[in-house]
Every structure is written in structure tokens, then in C-alpha cells.
Write a structure and sequence with these properties.
The chain is an alpha+beta fold and 216 residues long. Helices cover 17% and strands 39% of the residues. The longest helix is centred in the C-terminal third of the chain and has 19 residues.
Length: 216
């Protein structure tokens, strides 16, 4: 579990890629002070497991499914990535519930600086637009953000970034056309799942099933 508060920008030191999988060696500083084998690390919003540690570097395996469903497959050696360690049970909770399970990738359409903010418009797959609620939560490349605008007709999400977040995350390296990892609000997904289950159970109760079970 993560909070979406990025701890630092790390750097891809090495990439070992096969057709469908990849091993990343990532150089970091802040998080290396307390990192262990088997720890969960969010890398651009993707939950990955630390498989080795060497000085200021750690490695993670990227499985075929993760390669297919996230923007990690687009990374290049030397690229910066957002990293966050898993949230400690006794730690501060500054963002929102983030699982590190990416729902989709979006494409940046525009980046507009306005006084003390940057407006970023992202085109999303149609199927996740219902989760975009103005003033709700969304995770973009691992960053906990607030939905500033949601244009369901054109499948566009708008987020507003303060200068600190812009400078301290990989968003400052992005351009129009770049992909970003999107994770929708976990609580909204759980609520939807439960409501669907209730609806399914209700629809399965018919006169025939009541009669078969001796109720009528």
C-alpha cells in the first residue's frame, strides 16, 4: 500500500529486457536508507518487488503482464522515475490509498503553465472515465492528485500541479504525447464491485428460484 507522495526521483541505471519481461536496476538516494530485499516499491505508480540491493542501486523484475499494461515498457536507460516505499503502519498518510496496480495508461495531450500551477490534460481510455470525479482522487505515475476536470465526452482528465510537485516528480520531464500510468481511486472501485455484486444477487432471485427452495 502506498500514499502517492513521491519520495524522490530515481534514475534507471540499467535495463535488461527480453521480449516480454525486464529487469530494472534503479539508482536512488533517499529511499536507500531503509530498503530491504522483498520490499514493495512504487516505480512510476507500479508496485514492484526489490530483488537485490547494491550500494545506491536496487533491482526489480517487471513481469510480462506489467510490461503490457503499463508505461514501464517505454522507459530508457538514464530516465528518471518516481519512487515511493510502501506506507508504514505508523506513518503519516498524506495522499490517498494507492495499491500500485495500474488500471490503464493515458496520453498527455496538453501542458499549460498558469501562474503557480501547471494544468495537464490527459486522454484516458473510455472505460475508466466513470472513475474521474471532480475533486476526487487519481494516481498519475504514482503521484496522488486531485481531479481538476473530467470531460467524459472526450475522455479527458485535467489535473493541476503545484510547482513543488512539478519539480520533484517526473512530470517536469513530460511532453505532449507521452504516456502516463493511471490508477483510479481504490475506494470507488471497491464500492462499485460491491454494488454490482448486490445487483447480481438481486437479479438472480426469481419466482422459480423461490419456488424451488420452498419459499412459495
Amino acid at each position: 500500500m502506498f500514499t502517492g507522495i513521491i519520495e524522490e526521483k530515481a534514475v534507471i541505471e540499467k535495463m535488461e529486457q527480453t521480449n516480454n519481461a525486464m529487469v530494472l536496476t534503479i539508482q536512488a538516494n533517499t529511499i536507500m536508507k531503509d530498503i530491504h530485499l522483498g520490499d514493495s516499491i512504487s516505480v512510476n505508480g507500479v508496485c514492484l518487488t526489490v530483488t537485490s540491493i547494491d550500494g545506491h542501486c536496487f533491482t526489480v523484475d517487471v513481469m510480462p503482464e506489467t510490461m503490457k499494461d503499463t508505461s514501464l515498457r517505454m522507459l530508457k536507460q538514464g530516465a528518471a522515475v518516481n519512487v515511493e516505499r510502501a506506507m508504514p503502519a505508523d506513518g503519516r498518510f498524506g495522499g490517498h490509498f494507492v495499491s500500485g496496480h495500474v488500471d490503464a495508461t493515458g496520453t498527455i495531450r496538453t501542458i499549460t503553465p498558469v501562474e503557480n500551477a501547471y494544468y495537464i490534460t490527459i486522454e484516458l481510455p473510455k472505460n475508466i472515465m466513470p472513475y474521474m470525479m471532480v475533486k476526487g482522487s487519481v494516481t498519475v505515475d504514482g503521484i496522488s492528485l486531485t481531479v481538476f476536470g473530467a470531460d467524459a465526452e472526450n475522455n479527458l482528465l485535467t489535473i493541476s500541479i503545484i510547482p513543488h510537485t512539478w519539480q520533484e516528480t517526473v512530470l517536469s520531464d513530460k511532453h505532449a504525447g507521452d504516456p502516463v500510468n493511471i490508477e483510479t481511486d481504490m475506494l470507488m472501485k471497491y464500492t462499485e464491485h460491491l454494488l454490482r455484486a448486490d445487483k447480481k444477487n438481486e437479479s438472480s432471485i426469481t419466482t422459480s428460484t423461490l419456488k424451488e427452495n420452498g419459499f412459495i
